[in-house]
Design brief:
Number of helices: 7
Radius of gyration: 22 Å
Strand content: 5-15%
Largest sheet: 4 strands, parallel
Bound molecules: zinc ion
Distance between the termini: 60 Å
Order of helices and strands: HHHEEEHEHEHEH
Shape: globular
Number of strands: 6
């Protein structure tokens, strides 16, 4: 995009908004001109909200989830079952599981998956934190809820191998074919899991 005829503060904001996921140069320009017409107080409140998430949000030292308190509300809740820990890739996965209302255990957020192709090894995600946490607590079951793709499966396998000798029950989310999905379009991982997890009919 040619910024030469654009006032510097405007081109700067376009560049900044362009860094957001899903926001291309055109959307960034549209948002910038929208913000330009916004009342100053509203714009200030938005800018302050962005700063506040950086200044007031931290990682829970127990589960590594993003939180505004440490420990977070889930880790601090005596009503939750602290003997069951569900391992997820990202904080957003917790929101998805919480929405089901079917889980009362606690979580551990890895903040990524092992992906040699991207140069991400076990030390780059929160596996060390998981191990010391397991050793220091009375966890009896670990649910591996990483995504059912290559990296997610490999990460689950890696953690399973580390935890198995500790005598803790390790489970993996059951995954089947998507309802209404065509068998021929299912990827091999989904299909393999669907086969392995097959039930009496
Ligand atoms: Zn926590």
């Amino acid at each position: 995009m040619n910024f030469q005829s654009t006032p510097e503060p405007i081109s700067h904001l376009i560049e900044e908004l362009n860094k957001l996921p899903g926001i291309g140069p055109k959307s960034a320009a549209r948002l910038t001109y929208y913000l330009l017409r916004m009342p100053k107080e509203e714009a200030r409140s938005m800018a302050e909200a962005i700063l506040a998430v950086k200044e007031k949000v931290m990682l829970c030292s127990v589960c590594q989830n993003i939180s505004d308190s440490d420990p977070c509300r889930i880790c601090d809740n005596p009503q939750r079952d602290h003997s069951v820990t569900c391992i997820v890739e990202e904080p957003l996965d917790i929101l998805a599981i919480e929405r089901t209302g079917k889980y009362s255990g606690v979580y551990h957020v890895l903040h990524g998956v092992i992906s040699p192709a991207d140069g991400i090894g076990p030390d780059d995600i929160k596996i060390k934190e998981l191990l010391s946490r397991i050793q220091a607590s009375d966890v009896t079951e670990i649910i591996l809820a990483t995504n059912p793709n290559l990296e997610g499966e490999a990460t689950a396998m890696y953690i399973q191998r580390l935890i198995a000798p500790m005598g803790i029950r390790v489970t993996r989310l059951a995954r089947g074919l998507p309802a209404g999905g065509d068998l021929e379009y299912a990827d091999e991982i989904t299909l393999t899991r669907a086969l392995e997890g097959r039930q009496e009919f």
